[in-house]
Amino acid sequence: MRKHLAIVLLALAPSVAWAASTTTPASRDDGIATRPPNAWRADDPADSLYRAAKDALNDGDYRRAASLFHRIGERYPKSTYAPDAPYWEAFALYRVGDEAALREAQRVLDAGRRRFPNASTRGDAETLATRINGQLAKLGDPTATARVMGEAAGDSRDSAKGGKTGRSARSGRSGADNACATGDGEDDESTDTRIVALNALMQMDAERAMPILRQVLARRDACSETLRRKAVFLVAQKDTPDAADILLGAARNDPDREVRGQAIFWLSQVRSDRATAALDSILHSSGDAELRERAIFALAQQRGDSKAWQTLRDFAKSDAPVDLRRKAVFWLGQQERSTENAAFLHTLFDSPNGAPLRDDIIQAIANAGGEESVKWLLSIARDSKQDTEQRKKALFWLGQQRRVPATELTSLYDALPDRELKEHLIFVLSQRRESAAVDKLFDIARHDSDRSLRGKALFWLGQSNDPRVKQLLMEIINQ
Question: What is the rounded CA–CA span in Å between residue 295 and residue 266?
Fold first, then answer.
């Protein structure tokens, strides 16, 4: 029986191994396969050679890997591993990186495309070929430069593929998504290839790339959304005069929310008056609350731009929705020790327009730090005319300021007539570890005339590890 079972298993081994291979696809990085899948056909005559080539590639021994992958097609042309071997040979040569290796990789890919037009790596091969052309173009190769220009412009993305049969078509997508792989739109492979080409062109000649990127971002079909999302990133990488204008156009007009959001984010990385003006325009004119919030964030990233901070200050005191004004106040507090922002927030706190924002202003001023912030928080905590909740918030944030001596807080306790504020200050003192704060809690627990406050102090002392707590409890019990 066992012998019979062994024979059955041996007969099934190839199909079992093939099934296993489908669960271990090649690892991917930045649009192409970078690590071969595990070997899946133990009965294949090229199996051991494939394993050795795979190990060499993963170990970074690229020349040996290229040689071993080349032997697979040379010695075992009918092997299961043969159709994808040219891609992995070319990828290894691409990793070698010198001009001779790049040209050999180009030749290997061309030969592999002709010999194995239906290889599972054919889409990756197209993208890899564009990368190789980009490297050769940087070395001054005019033919490679022309190819990169053609791919970037989308002129030849399907000429070598025999139609849209890319990864998106093979992945089983249906409906509108699958239409992108079969209709006039772009499939995943052509998008990857074109992005690689655009990136290479940007590195070589930004002036020639920018008009093409502008054309990409002018598209409005759903199938080009991925391409447009990546295009806004490429636009932002070059400090050209029209970068801010292109990004602004995408932020305002692209039908895809993610494209608009990314365009606003990258506007924050363009350090220019035009970028600040563009963000200002979005903040004040867009009807999309999420995009306006992103514009606030982007303006706050313009650290050295006084106009950006002025825009945020103006917006914070405007009649815009309170939730958005709160975001502006938060970011104003993130610029540490800014006298302009601090003075503005103090004024806004006292104004009728700032009433809905007072809690946020207290937190923003505390985040900004500095002696003036501490003095202001103390003044709010002491001011009996202020709302109790806001005084409690000022006390809380004072407790978080390690530069505020615990003695300042303990003296404040005795000056506060309000029982609710004293109870809150007991909690604030319990979060400090200085001896002055702990001593004050012991004093309150022993001597405060308010029994409830004594109980609060005792409760928080019980949460500490101070050995004196046990003695205090014994004193209370024995009274």
Answer: 10
* Torsion sign (Cα): 289, 292, 298, 300: negative
Average confidence (pLDDT) over 7-26: 39
Which pLDDT score, from 0 to 100, does residue 176 have?
40
**Banded model confidence at residue 162, pLDDT cuts 50, 70, 90:** very low
**Cα separation, 347 vs 359, whole angstroms:** 14
pTM score of the predicted model: 0.61
What is the model's pLDDT at position 405? 86
Q: Among residues 315, 309, 319, which one has the least CA distance to residue 342?
A: 309
- Spatial contact of 315 and 284, defined as CB atoms under 8 Å apart: yes
CA 94 to chain centre: 29
Where does the pLDDT of residue 329 fall: very low under 50, low under 70, confident under 90, or very high at 90 and above? Answer: very high
pLDDT digits (tens, 9 = 90+) for 61-89: 999 999 999 999 999 999 999 999 999 99
Percent of the chain with pLDDT over 70: 81
